[in-house]
Amino acid sequence: MTDIVISIVGRSDTGKTTLIEKLVAELTGRGYRVGTIKHDAHGFDIDREGKDSWRHKNAGAAMTILSCPTKIAIIKDVDHDAEIDHLMARYVDDVDIVLTEGYKSSKKPKIEVFRKAACDDLLCSGDENLIAIATDARHDLDVPQFDINDAKGLADFIEERFLGERNRELIALEVDGEPVSMKPFLRTMLTNSISGMISALRGCSEPDTIIIKIETGAGRAARPAPAGKF
User: Fold this and answer.
1) Per the CATH hierarchy, to which homologous superfamily does domain 5-41+81-167 belong?
2) Is pTM beyond 0.85 here?
């Protein structure tokens, strides 16, 4: 599970959803797996009256899961507003970074979206967790400020500051002597899987470096047999 969470915050109608849309596309295009969490303080409903899942919940089910070959949705009754860390621990996996929309009161790093036509002042000007501003006006704050439409620049900033270590080559793959590039998620998956299996072997509980060499049947067949003794 990733521990990289960035909250996109701002007042109403500043363009938070649009910016998240652009950042997801930009980071996904660079090979990262991106998760998102949308916080709605006013409540929401994804189920329509009369649908089977709605009938399940209306009959009294505390939780209903909708499943199909391409997606899963969970509708569950709760008695409190879940914190980001709780949602991450229970529902988020297989991603490199999570972008949230909202959660302005959280302690996670925040990027505020400011649009002068929609608001007069910043929401997080005194917040020590504010790391950048996407804006169409200049602000007297000592944090990086990006044009509100500069998703590429913001993605560069996020990648350099938060994903650089994850993007480091912890694992190298060569096929027939030639290096093969891997996307960040695949590198992380292979590193964790191989390290976990090797660590389970006796005497290999805390390996620093692991080298595995695999020869396929074709490779073995092409290799000349050792000379015999006469």
Assistant:
1) P-loop containing nucleotide triphosphate hydrolases (3.40.50.300)
2) no
